[in-house]
What we know:
312 residues, alpha/beta, 7-stranded mixed beta sheet, 6-stranded parallel beta sheet, 9 helices
Amino acid sequence: MRIALAGAGAFGEKHLDGLKNIDGVTVTSLVGRNLEPTQAIAAKYGIGHATTELAETLARDDVDAVILCTPTQMHAEQAIACMDAGKHVQVEIPLADSWADAQAVLRKQEETGLTCMVGHTRRFNPSHQWVHRQVMAGAFNVQQMDVQTYFFRRKNINAKGEARSWTDHLLWHHAAHTVDLFAYQAGRIVDAHAMQGPIHPELGIAMDMSIQLKSESGAICTLSLSFNNDGPLGTFFRYIGDTGTYIARYDDLVNGKEEPIDVSKVDVSMNGIELQDREFVSAISEGREPNSSVAKVFDCYRVLGELEKQLG
Length: 312
């Protein structure tokens, strides 16, 4: 499998770290915003081609598939461009920043029949996989999820503390993780409400947001998001169910008493991003639909579109 990666930033490197652990995968091309730092990362990972133009990479015959780690605002257009070029594509979360664009990507996938997968990493984290298996076995039913997504981003910087060329968004990016995960664990979302705090005068986005969800099973979810939080950073999921309480922190899981649950045997790795990339490669190789295909996560973007309308 010959893969190109577009977006050589903080998250792009996480994918490169995961891909190097997958047998039979070669990263043949790297696309970045500025050539010199892109060439430096290409050299670090032994990638033979570096460019600032996605079209140049898509024209290459040594690229079977593309992973997009580019700015949110580019995702839909670039995913469509990849499929138009005959390349399978994994687009990092979110698929799009509008309901209309999400619909356009699904139409293109159905038209081409190519693999189009979205980086909904929570489906792959061993912690959430463990809970999902309990749900599928009928041993645990979600009654409520309480989720906190907290960052400190009063300036436009990425996860490495470097200046960003684009502005992140609590609704379309960070809420997408929880909206999809809640539906994955508790059933299709049938009711959703949102409120947001003041708009930042320079970034032009809401820095705080509150979302309530209800699934067809009757389960509810409360999601709090903030870019103003000056404390522990990340996303923390509390599952309250009929037979137990579990708290997931990325790949790790504890019960309600903070006692660790061993999830090391859930999958071949403890790295959710690596597991996500393994699924992408396997789905293409086996000619099957991947978990977190555009079709499987599509309803998440319907809900986000409805919430955006509420927020005005």
